[in-house]
Amino acid sequence: WGTLTSIRCLSSQLAPVSPRAKKTQLVEILQNANMEPSSPKSSSRKASRKSSVKDADSASEESYGLPTFLWIPNLIGYTRVLLLFAAAYLSGSAAYASMICYMVSMLLDAVDGMAARHFNQTSHFGAVLDMVSDRITTMVLTCILGGRLLPEYLMVFIGLVALDISSHWVLMQKALVLGATSHKSVDGQKNVLMRIYYTVPYAMFVVCFFSEAFYVSLFMWTARPDDWHFVPWGGAHVSLFQASFYFATPFFVFKQIVNVIQMVEAFADLGRHDYKVRAQKMQAGKNQ
């Protein structure tokens, strides 16, 4: 009734012209007033759009009934963090129990990614939680090694933690600024080591696994130096943890080289992006 009243008021303002011209003039007035003449077809289209939106919302609620914080891969991430704190607490009194907690937390790093893909529960929150858990994993064990077992190498462990955190933080920041789909994207990457690390199947998993095994072996070698000795080929007594440490060292060194490269190149990409944005602004100012 309100719409009909508005149309009558507008019609009274029209000049006495032919009915066809009067209809055209009325449509123009309605368009200028941001109004659209309604029709049965347009009303049905609007109702259909509202219904489809409502159906999509209900489908979304059915598929993702739980909040993101309670998705399965994120629950695995919380478990990883709890296991790390348990490993730190037990490190002074129960070395084996401590390392079991640590290694389970490390292995869950692969499980949460598989769970996210299997249950279609990938999220930005989960990606950040995964990276933070990885950094905590490295930091906890290096703090134990540098602060309790090998204090003479404290500065070395501080440097390793600083490199690990800064390289991944800069890499994540570059992905956000440049709009990359993932911080692991290597599109346009020319460095051979980076392409091997991020694109060769299972390369990242193997390197990360043995990099963590480097820390685990070093911890067990220093915490339990008299355990698990054997004599290889008639030589001197060697600890199993000592042998594992030496075997994992090349993978650990490779991981640190990758950390340095990705940090330097991420900084370089951010610098090039800033230069490009500044050049575009200066060009736009000249054009004005």
Describe the protein in words:
With about 290 residues, the chain is an all-alpha fold. The protein has helices spanning about 1-10, 20-30, 40-65, 70-90, 95-120, 125-150, 155-180, 190-200, 205-225, 240-285; strands at about 230, 240. The protein contains 10 helices and 2 strands. It has a two-stranded antiparallel ribbon. The longest helix has about 50 residues, at about 240-285. The relative contact order is 0.07. The model is unreliable at about 1-5, about 35-40 and about 50-65 (pLDDT under 50).
Shape type: globular
Beta strand count: 2
Question: Please, what is the average pLDDT?
Answer: 79
Total helical elements: 10
Spell out the blueprint of helices and strands.
Elements: H1 2-12, H2 19-32, H3 40-63, H4 72-90, H5 95-118, H6 124-149, H7 154-178, H8 192-199, H9 203-223, E1 229-230, E2 238-239, H10 240-287
Antiparallel strand pairs: 1-2
Attribute tags:
single chain, 288 residues, mainly alpha, 2 strands, globular, disordered N terminus
Summed up:
76% of the residues lie in helices and 1% in strands. It is built from ten helices and two strands; from the N terminus they run αααααααααββα.
